[in-house]
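Possible regression after last week's pipeline update?

I re-ran a chain I had predicted before the update to compare outputs. Posting the input and the new output here so someone can diff against the archived version. Not blocking, just want to make sure nothing changed silently.
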Amino acid sequence: MSDKPFRDEYEKLFVELSTKVEKWLVRCIAAAAVLMLLLQALLQIPAIRVAVTRIDRLEGVPYRHGGLNGVPVEAVISSAPGES
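New output (post-update):
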């Protein structure tokens, strides 16, 4: 007896199942990507970002341009040890 008809039926069922699973996975990945982009866009709004995340409160002292503690950058660089 040949089991070829059983193998053909199994392969047919496997292809049908894998096609359905593949479509489901692609849809889930696409939905996750869209959701991630939407959430990242919402985090650009300061009022939402403050309500959702804690990182802004934990960052510390904001960076100020102009050097270290008000000293110009050029003065800090020229007084670096080992520099001539």
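Follow-up from reviewer: compared with the archived run. The first helix runs from residue 4 to 42. Marking as no regression found.
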